[in-house]
Amino acid sequence: MSTSAASSVTSGAPPVLGALGLFTVLLGAALPLIDFFIVNVALPTIGEDLHAGEAVLELVVAGYGVAYAVLLVLGGRLGDLFGRRRLFLGGLAAFGLASLACGLAPDAWTLVAARAAQGAAAAAMLPQVLATIQAGTAGARRARAMGLYGATAGLSMVGGQILGGVLVAADIAGSGWRAVFLVNVPAVLVGLVLAVRAVPDTRSPRPEPVDGPGTVLLAASLLTLLVPLTEGRAAGWPLWTWAALLAFPFVAWGFYAVERRADRAGRTPLVPPSLFALPSLRRGLILLAPFSVGFSGFMFVLAVALQQGAELGPVAAGVTLVPMAAAFFVVSLCGPRLVARFGTRVVTAGGLIQVVGLVLIALAVRRDWPDLGIVTLLPGGAVAGAGQALQMPVLFRVILSEVPTARAGVGSGVMITTQQSALALGVATLGSLFLALAPGMGMRDALVTTLLAQLALVVVTVALSLRLPREVG
Questions:
Q1: Which residues are CB-neighbours of 438 under 8 A, at least 6 positions away?
Q2: Which of 2, 32, 250, 254 is the most exposed place for a label (fewest CB within 10 A)?
Q3: 259: three-class secondary structure by DSSP
Q4: How far from 64 is each of 115, 126, 257, CA to CA, in Å?
Q5: d(CA 471, CA 341)
Q6: How many angstroms from the chain centroid is the CA of residue 18?
Q7: Per-residue pLDDT averaged across 405-410, rounded?
Q8: Dist CA 27 CA 193 (whole Å)
Q9: What percent of the chain has pLDDT over 90?
């Protein structure tokens, strides 16, 4: 720990998150999001090398995403209880070990297990990032830090797919697809060294014990929803998938009832229903869900369509996203100034811009298929990326703007759980729609139809953005 970080803890002064500490926690935030998307372009190679069928490959994606989503809120609570720096370090180290296990996996089922462990480690680490930002910054510094977090999240999700294509094609030392996981190991080692020096130790001043019944019921709720939706199509929709989906509303209601009862009795539930009394958090989460569903579905479907339909290699498929990533980066830097001037109407404008980008992409697909590439998709990708940059960072800031510092871990855990669950749902729903339509309609028309479905989701986000609080704290 650096001298400044140590003194802030021992003197009782509020902890201060400096520039190096902010860089370190943002590195920790980037790794899990990169890994959610990095496998999209590597799946065909993984399947060939490990002789894995489609259902097992779905588990390589779903095992990570489900473990990640299920444990996020618990990870936030444990950070509040035992110290966010400790959970960040432990989660980061475990993420590195799980990544190493993924890269060395001798067979598909070992890879599935290692991916689930990777998701669990990410769930311990990521809530501490936002909670540390909330506790270690204030005012304009917090606004800048939250803007950088949102920009990092967006770039990580787009950049992960680009990086995956480059690493698979580079075949470094004959590693092939394994490099998409092994690349995490040196990044984790750097992060651990920096975290020990620069990340301040923060925790809730009134630590709240873990809510056992709430934890079990939340996990059951997410499992009964996410597992059948992510595995159902590849497994042929067996009876257990329908039984799980039928059980979901009852389990979810049970979770809500238990949490409400605990809240009214003065105990500390895992997800306090009173937290949703905050208009900014409630309305922001409702908007974040369709945005994330559309984002992840788009990324997955585009990777499949470009590689299997347009027959692009992993690098060429990844490079088509460079204009989107570049536009996202540039526009996200302007976000804080635009929000200061126009408030949350920036989110509405971003949604409308994204609509234009998706229309341009759909027109390019319909006109030029299968001769797609960076040039044909550049206008739509750049416009869509700019629109996304005006939404995601601002939404994160809005959602957490009214959450008390003492509940920063819980608030960030709830937000990231919503985002991660929606990302998994996007792959399951839009991905399944595309894969179901492709045999009958052909790849081109299936891709255009899926883009129109995402367009409908963006229209929903535009409408919901009008209900956000006008000013951002």
A1: 309, 446
A2: 250
A3: helix
A4: 5, 14, 28
A5: 10
A6: 25
A7: 72
A8: 12
A9: 38
Tokens of 214: 């709430």
Query: Is residue 326 within 8 Å of 374, Cβ to Cβ?
Result: no
Structure tokens at 14: 């509020």
How far lies 78's CA from each of 12, 63, 317, in Å? 21, 22, 40
The Cα 69–Cα 223 span in angstroms is 9
Cis omega before residue 370 (within 30°)?
Answer: yes
CA 325 vs CA 154, 156, 159: distances in Å: 8, 9, 7
- DSSP character string of 79-138: HHHH-HHHHHHHHHHHHHHHHHHHHT-SSHHHHHHHHHHHHHHHHHHHHHHHHHHHHH--
The encoded tokens of residue 254 equal 């049970």
**Between 270 and 358, the higher pLDDT residue:** 358
Q: Between vectors from CA 270 to CA 265 and to CA 274, what angle results, nearest 5°?
A: 60
Give the list of residues 6+ apart from residue 269 with CB closer than 8 angstroms, or none: 211, 214, 258, 259, 260, 262, 263
pLDDT value at residue 14 = 58
What is the C-alpha separation between 148 and 142, in angstroms, rounded?
A: 10
Please provide the size of the chain in residues. Answer: 473
Token representation of residue 346 = 């920036």
Question: Model confidence over 351-393: pLDDT tens digits?
Answer: 999 999 999 999 999 999 988 888 899 999 999 999 999 998 8
Assessment of whether the complete model's pTM goes beyond 0.85: no
Whole-angstrom Cα distance, residue 142 to residue 13? 17
